[in-house]
Specification:
Layout lengths: L2 E3 L6 E3 L2 E3 L8 H13 L4 E3 L7 H9 L7 E6 L4 H15 L4 E7 L13 H10 L3 E7 L3 H10 L4 E5 L6 H12 L3 E5 L10 H9 L4 E6 L3 H12 L6 H13 L20 H4 L2 H7 L8 H7 L10 H5 L6 H21 L2
Parallel strand pairs: 3-4, 3-10, 4-5, 5-6, 6-7, 7-8, 8-9, 9-10
Antiparallel strand pairs: 1-2
């Protein structure tokens, strides 16, 4: 596999990386098999987070005994020095290691004050000075905060959503990171599953040499596909560009990216799925969504209490309650139509 160095960190990683977030939904034994297959296939970089339930534990079980052969990145959502160090302590236990290669602030809504001795940034510096962390970084969905973090010179890496439907303004982050020698980790390369042509997605992001995409993988078949793309990188030909242009036309700026920061929902609405239902019905095999179970799930939207939590926490500024109601109306129309035809 082709390798690259993450900015000024000096840490060498494969340009194909493994995003472990989806592995929360994979049983432990199966997850370990998939992670070990990824390692045997050549992938050296694995990204997880304290908030991804048992994902750190799965990495720890998979790579016990070969820890020095892989690069592990994790994240803390804490906004305080003590909280971040406590999260790191837990992460190290779950990962079965005494250090992580990269510790990232997990999508902070405000960049921490680097001069505050009790800030999360102070915790990053302390962790690095102690040898428990090799490099420090930040993740964010906000372009404004991402740009500010890079320009501050305080972070070794940035993790930011990048894919072939990203705007030119978002893609400009790539050159910005190159100019500041900041390692750039690309998340959401399949836009939460709405981009269904993974070949086009892989080819598009591979053209940027300083971007290391983390491919969210849940199943062995998904891993094998990514490994095949890395072995024989697809070329951005006219056919793939046509697919990219189609996706750009179909997926506007106002759709839900399924980042999950709207959760938890007090009405138990599965917001990341429900808020994208119209697109899912058009872009994926729809039969899986017109079941009694999904009909009940979608109608939890009727129980919305307008608490504002989802809207206030959406990094893309979506009016989530309004979007959910619109998706429910679209779903009911589709459901009734297709149930009559069955």
């Amino acid at each position: 596999m082709i390798k690259t160095t993450l900015g000024r960190t000096g840490i060498e990683v494969t340009r194909t990386a493994f995003g472990v977030l989806p592995m929360q939904r994979t049983p432990m034994d199966e997850a370990v098999l998939i992670l070990r297959r990824a390692y045997d296939g050549g992938i050296t970089f694995y990204d997880t987070a304290r908030g991804y339930t048992d994902s750190e534990e799965k990495i720890g079980n998979a790579f016990a005994g070969i820890r020095s052969n892989v690069v592990i990145a994790t994240k803390s959502p804490s906004t305080t020095r003590s909280g971040l160090l406590s999260d790191l302590h837990t992460s190290l236990e779950k990962l079965q290691t005494d250090y992580v290669d990269l510790l990232q602030l997990h999508t902070p809504s405000v960049l921490p004050d680097p001069n505050d001795p009790e800030s999360s940034y102070a915790g990053l510096l302390e962790a690095k000075a102690s040898g428990k962390v090799r490099a420090i970084g930040i993740t964010n969905h906000s372009l404004e905060r991402a740009v500010a973090a890079v320009k501050s010179g305080l972070y070794d890496t940035l993790q930011y959503p990048l894919c072939h439907i990203s705007s030119e303004v978002d893609l400009a982050v790539i050159d910005l990171c190159r100019e500041h020698n900041v390692g750039l980790i690309g998340m959401k390369s399949l836009s939460g599953g709405l981009i269904t042509n993974s070949k086009a997605a892989f080819a598009f992001i591979r053209q940027y040499e300083n971007v290391v995409p983390i491919w969210g993988i849940q199943r062995m078949a998904e891993l094998e596909q990514i490994l095949s793309f890395d072995a024989q990188p697809p070329i951005l030909d006219s056919e793939l560009w046509a697919q990219i242009e189609s996706d750009r036309k179909d997926l506007s700026e106002s759709f839900c990216r399924a980042c999950g920061y709207c959760l938890p929902c007090p009405a138990e609405i599965q917001i990341p799925m429900a808020a994208r239902m119209g697109l899912l019905l058009r872009r994926m095999p729809f039969e899986q969504f017109i079941t009694d179970e999904w009909h009940q799930q979608m109608h939890r939207i009727d129980n919305c209490i307008d608490c504002g939590h989802c809207k206030d926490h959406c990094p893309y500024g979506l009016d989530t309650p309004a979007l959910l109601k619109r998706m429910l109306a679209e779903y009911d129309k589709f459901y009734e139509s297709n149930c009559r035809n069955q």
